[in-house]
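Write out the bound-state structure for glycinamide ribonucleotide.
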Amino acid sequence: MIKKIAILISGHGSNMEAIVKNCKNGNLKNLCEVVLVLSNKKKAEGLKIAKSYGIETSYIISKGKKRKEFDIELINYLKKYDLDYIILAGFMRILSSEFINEYKNKIINIHPADTNKFQGLGAYEWAFENKLIETKITVHFVDTGVDTGEVIGKCKVDLTDAKTLSEIKKRGLKVEHKFYSEMLKKIFEKNS
Ligand code: GAR
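---
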């Protein structure tokens, strides 16, 4: 059965775009369908990108709202889509237990570091400041902690001779774009 997924974003959405492309013509073809791309920011660049692929988009503004208030609004909004999975792709919000429990073991995130070593925002900045010669990308299920959920997979990023933060991000995102879809494929096939 083809999985119905929603992708939640906050910004550029390059991971979202990679998944969308793979659903249309890559390794996720016939495994999942992106039925919605939703942002917590009205002006998220990724919304325009998703629209250009003919995907339904929406936003629910989170600014000024309490965590639980926003999450309940989101739960109510998503109900009509009958989703199998929620895919976080640069969604820069911590989700409350109300939301996590509504989609237990159905929320997947990509984190641009080894979740054992660095959690939260600024993972590439952390790699840069610590002059790492290698970092990792983690794809994991989301639980009520910050980047503490069950790991689906980790992938190395070679940072040898990467002298600037933008070079680190460039190398990391290149790995993210391929690796996220590979891990989604693994989960969707396992639970098909
Ligand atoms: C990606 O590097 C993603 O791993 C990271 O934000 C970026 C979003 O880029 N996510 C986190 O840091 C989550 N804690 P994108 O919008 O171009 O996909």
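---
The mean pLDDT is 97.
The first helix runs from residue 14 to 25.
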